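> Could you send the DUF4064 domain-containing protein prediction when you get a chance?

Sure thing. Input:
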Amino acid sequence: MKKKAPGKTLLQVVGILLVVFGVLSFLLSLVNIATLGMMDGELGDIMEQSLAATGITMEAYKISIYLTTAASVLNLIIGIIGIANCNKIKRANICFICGIILLIWQLGNDAYTAVTTGFSGAMIISVIIGLILPVLYFWGAVKNRQALQDGVEL
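Output:
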């Protein structure tokens, strides 16, 4: 029976989830970007009024769309890297770096959200939930990296 890398399951499962969520998020981002393209005239005025009623500026809305698009592409790429390299001990460092990128991106996103919308109890819950997949991906990468450092051969 072929041995598997210690972090294979985590990297594979989280990688699949990142790809699925990345694709769905990217499709929604395309809809939002298309909506931005229709902001001339009456629709734009209605959209700005709706956003203003919730305390969001049009500029903040555009930034959030672009950040969401970037995050979806990042999740898609890192998910594919995790799936492709989940059982390759020699490629553990690339997954480790991707895990760090995911964590930094998520924390940066949470910091931006806290600055733009304020800090609340719901924000704390959002931070915790948002960190689940990046932490699990990173943990799987750390397990594989430790096996690499220990000289494990598959």
